[in-house]
Amino acid sequence: MQLPFTVDEFMSIFAMYNVSVWPAQFVLFALALVALLCFYRNVFHTRQVVFAILSFLWAWTGMVYHIWFFSLINPFAYIFGALFVVQSLIFLYFGVLRDNVILIPRLDLRTTFGLLLVFYALIVYPVIGFATGRIYPRSPTFGTPCPTTIFTFGILLFSVKRVPFYFLLIPLLWSLIGFSAAISLGIVEDIGLLVFGVVSTTLLTIMKPAPIQKSNQYINSDEKSN
């Protein structure tokens, strides 16, 4: 894929972004940890907090990274930014306001793979970047598109039901875009993005999750209201 920018220009955008928004990176990372804590404390309204955080992360990535910074070297960034904002609104409406997706810890393949993706996005991703010579600030940090997408797939894999495809379409599309760019730019940590996206989408739309073990610790909003 022919890109309208060089590798050096691409990494320079990350440097400009990281320096300009610092210390927001720590806030975004902390929000990811809060989302995990809410998942394991899955009681009344905490799953809405998880989707509120996902909504914020996608809005941030779309408006701040794509539209504010990436658009300086890539005119398609405005389209990317708009897609990320649309995904943010999907999480806000269906995940927070409508509360359509229930997240509960289970011992099954989906949850295990989800935890692996979350760990990859938060820990392994920056380690691989550092090991391959991308030193901060010239490196993708959490809150930029690819680690945010991987983290999102990880969180969605905690769902107790099949997830509607409209939740997954834009993240899956970005998996393809990010993978293609990774091949062209040599961003090693993003090369697995397409596999993560395809496997996650398959697990979320086709594979039935394991039965939920009843426990007083995990109470959905309907039970709580009754």
**Helical stretch count?**
9
First-last Cα distance: 55 Å
* SS-derived structural category: mainly alpha
Query: Strand percentage, roughly?
Result: under 5%
Shape descriptor:
globular
For the record, the count of structural domains works out to 1
Number of strands: 0
Supply Rg.
17 Å
Give the H and E element order: HHHHHHHHH
Q: What is the residue-mean pLDDT, rounded to a whole number?
A: 89
Structural summary, described in words:
By secondary structure, the protein is mostly helical. The protein has one domain (7-209). Helix content is 67%, strand content 0%. It contains nine helices and no strands. Helix 7 (165-185) packs antiparallel against helix 8 (193-205). The termini are far apart. Residues 214-226 have low confidence and may be disordered.
Helix and strand layout, with pairings?
Blueprint: H1 7-21, H2 24-40, H3 46-69, H4 77-97, H5 109-131, H6 145-156, H7 165-185, H8 193-205, H9 221-225
Helix pairs in contact: 2-3, 3-4, 3-6, 4-7, 5-6, 5-8, 6-7, 6-8, 7-8
Q: How would you describe this structure in keywords?
A:
mainly alpha, globular, 226 residues, 9 helices
Q: How do you describe this structure in short?
A:
With 226 residues, the chain is mainly alpha-helical. It has helices at 7-21, 24-40, 46-69, 77-97, 109-131, 145-156, 165-185, 193-205, 221-225.
